[in-house]
Known about the structure:
Layout: H1 4-8, H2 12-15, H3 18-25, H4 27-32, H5 36-45, H6 50-54, H7 61-71, H8 76-80, H9 90-102, H10 105-119, H11 123-144, H12 163-184, H13 204-212, H14 214-234, H15 238-270, H16 279-295, H17 300-322, H18 333-342, H19 346-366, H20 376-379
Helix pairs in contact: 3-7, 5-7, 10-11, 10-13, 12-17, 13-15, 14-15, 15-16, 15-19, 16-17, 16-19, 17-19
Amino acid sequence: MTDLSELDRGAAPGAADPVKVLLHRHRELCERAVDPLEIAAGLEAHGITDRTAARFRHRDVFSLAEELYARVPRDGDTVTDAPAAPDAPAPEGGRRSVTVLLLPLLPGALCAAALVALARTHGQTRLYAAAAGVVAVALALRAALRRGPLALPDGLASRSATGSWTCWLLAYAVLGDGLLRTALTGGPDGLPDGTTGGDWPLALAPLLALTLAVAPATWTAGLFLAHARRKLAVSRGLEDFAASVRPVLLGAVALFVGALAVLVALCAPLLDAGPVSPAVLALGALLFVARLLTVHGFTHAPRVILMLTATAHVLAPATVFAARLPGCAALGAPVEALTAAWGPTAVPVLTCGAGALILLVHAARTLARASAHLRPEQAR
Length: 380
């Protein structure tokens, strides 16, 4: 955060012109910016608010950024006279946009194909089909999430280790409810056999719905990003931008959850399964908001919430099994009481729902900042 007291008592040449001191401190940001909006967002990232801008005789950060943008030395002729080469690679750009548009459909398509293969095989062949399907869907998810609005910025992937917790949550969506239900009745008596009616039944409809939801998640995130940048272009203050972008964020989350609800309603009849639990909606909302925060550089809260949610999922059946030990019956009492009242799906509904709500409140605060919509190289 910029220390205003240091600006006020700066060097003699800058004391009469505090904007010049500010320009010196943020020269790299101002020289690299392509428009005043980038400077405004960068100043906000350094702690300069509309109230701070008033000390520089400006009504808000945006007008201060416009002065900084106008005063920074630029080699305009070199930039303007550059050859107009961007028109040449237009076909490649068009192919790239089509790829970004269609690639999110691949995980759902491969998951549907894997489930068809799983239904038509038996014995060891079914095991091979399941393994091949898991690998194919995982690779498709990786490819879909490496491009487009849900792609992580360069250098961020190594610091946002949420993939393992996401895998735990997806595994519980498939295996967890069946395991908890059989554990409460004294089982399971065997390992999963790939069916919904075995000793350890699988829930395949949630997995299909969630993989199909990668497409609406990508498109909805793109809409949010486009609307947020449009609001940034027309806003004249940080508070004005925050107030206008929060409804866009809430609308994007609601749109995704609505699309996921439609997919959930369609997947259950196709797989001859019962009504899919609302836990799928809660899990989808949790993963979507966590990804939005992560791609904008806010990695800590999603990592912590996903870790706590996955841990709660693991502990639920673990406490039921631990209650079978002599003198440990009290360990399973909370989970048994919860499932007796609302069923085994109450565990993921409560944990994922609470996690999604916490992250949504956090996102409404952090993603309403102009600096959240800077690319990493612009924020430096």
